Fold this sequence. Notes:
The complex is a heterodimer. Chain A contains nine helices and 13 strands. Chain A is α/β, with parallel strands linked by helices. Helix content of chain B is about 65%, strand content about 10%. Chain B has 17 helices and eight strands.
Amino acid sequence: MDDAIAIEGVRKVFGDFVAVENLSLRVPAGKLCGFIGPNGSGKTTTLRLIMRIYAPDAGTVRVLGDSRHGPADDRVGYLPEERMLYKSMRVGEVLTYLSRLKGYKPNRIEIDQWLERLALPGVARRRVQTLSKGQTQKIQLIAVLIAKPKLVLLDEPFSGLDPVNSNVMRDAILELKNNGTTVLFSTHDMASAEELCDRIVMIYKGNKVMDGTINEIRAGHNTDTLRVRLANLASNFDNLPGVACAIAEGDHHELQLTPTADAQAILRELQQRGPVELFEIARPSLHDLFVRTVHEGAA
Amino acid sequence: MKSKTLVIAVREYLAAVKTKGFLVGLILMPLLMGGGVLVQSFTKGLEDPTPRTIAVLDRTPGETLWAALDTAAVKQNSGTQVLSVPKPRYTLKHIETPTDAAGLDKTRLDLSDRVRRGEVTAVVEIGPNALKPRPTTTPGTEPSEDTAEDSVYFSTNRPALLEVRDFVSRTIQTPVLAARLGQSRETIEAVSKSSRDVLASRGLARKTDTGVSFEPRSNEAATLLLPVAMVVVMLMVVLVGASPLTTNIIEEKQLRIAEVLVGSVTPFTLMLGKLLGGVATSLTLGAIYLGGAAVAARQLEVLDMLSVGLVIWFIVFTIVASMMYGALFVVAGAAATNVKEAQALMTPMMLVVVMPMFLIGPLMNEPHGTIGLAGTFFPLTAPLVTMMRLTTPPPISWWQPVAALLSSGLMTVALVWLAGRVFRAGFLLVGRPAKFRELIGWILKG
């Protein structure tokens, strides 16, 4: 399968600040890829490089088979992180305008259909300034999608959305994937990334530190955590062999294991201390991996 | 790219002509042009009706001028009601002539204080020798200056009340001249009348079906007014189209629309679209003003002065000026992050834009002199100065507006290119204004 995005050895510097360093990543066509990393790690710069807003200082950026730097590619839709619309324009006008900038002229029916689909019926004649923040964000998403892009870049699409609108956004992203559109979205919402994405790429301080499917990423990390709940909640986990620390997590505890720990030996030991209601050898979540990676990088 | 530029230009144009600023600009210009005349005619006869009290210290023997002033005041007051609008009354106060120098100084101080307190509008002091003949001047020598004893003085702290001074001057002019020259009042009045209008104006002769007639004199006024009107109108329409670019760009940066836009088009396309939108706005306003001017010119029978050639040059130079000055405003918008910062950047740019206005005086005197030529070929002033010269007779050579167009056109291309480089780097800049070194870096490195 062709790669929708192929970045090779890219470097981008602003003055003395290295935003992206020797970054290489591939996003296969038709896949939904999550782009994670702490604030200031270079995600937005990378998305702008893909959008050709910035030119790389070194390396190549190939998008939908085209590695030229110059005019924006009409086949690529982009939803920036910080986004607003012309407040005094009507919704229908702004959607038509932004679509035409992508070389597409939607008709009125099409606009109304999109508005219906994103639970915004009848707002085409309303001025943008009369909409709520969530409504405005959905209009922005429509502005990206209405021109039928082959590749969609979304920078923090869930930020600022309430749970209902988050679900609408999630459904729209999944629909894109089902239609064969390649999607790359940056997010701090690890649960959404884990739930939606075929692949995850994480960058930290301008460098790629994680790349693969969720399973590939997890497989690369030891199952070094146990989820345990004892009938006697007050039980202490002191002096358990192979347990580095125990952290209370609501109705259960998470036990961090040492590299040589024997899970079965720990289970036997726990059963001697009382009835065991939950014993699960847990794989680290994306959230765990994210936090660990950042802590390791900081150390 | 072309169609996207057009899409942006159309949006910018529609956004501009729907604003209150455009509508204000639309009515502001006629108000500025005709408002002065209207206000003048409207307020005519609405002078301050408070009485004018004039203290008269007539030191001439027999106080003959006091008598003349007193009589004139009575005559003036007899017609102080025009329709229902009251006219100010004139009250003259006779001041006794002091007998010595110390008394004179005391009287002068006292009268001045009364003026300061508002009890008296003005003081007229007539020297004792004011009516005596002046000594004959020998040819080649300077006449000796009048002393306080020879002169008539008018003092007030309300110099704007010109009609009070005019009243005094009008009243004493003839008797003083008659006395000084030893002639009768009738002779002086006859000399005065004969010395007026020695040189009368007449329009140029033109051939008609019945012989020769002269162009109406209204052409003269139009000839003087047209160049100034053209420059003011062009400057106005260019500013209405170009100056909002700065705030427009800053608004897009502040609202974070910028990134959405440059995700779809190149910064240069975006900037070009904005500039073209500004040009279209200027041309719309220009067309409305020119249409109005044509109607007025037809009423005044000077429509022939607005030739087709002149209108075409107006359109061409408006386009060039809008692009050229618009590029400067784009730079200000791209380099600043808020309106306050932009204003600091716009000040020097506005000076460049209004530079031709400073040349209006010298150009009116000598439109085709050195300053006129320099202004025509200096790219930043070329559109406005050339337009002014094109409307001032005699006609200039055909190559001069063409050369002006070339120089300003090349400057426009250079400025648009330069603005494009600044815009590309500065359009996404938020949070802090660009430093001067950064601006230079953007221009040099892109």
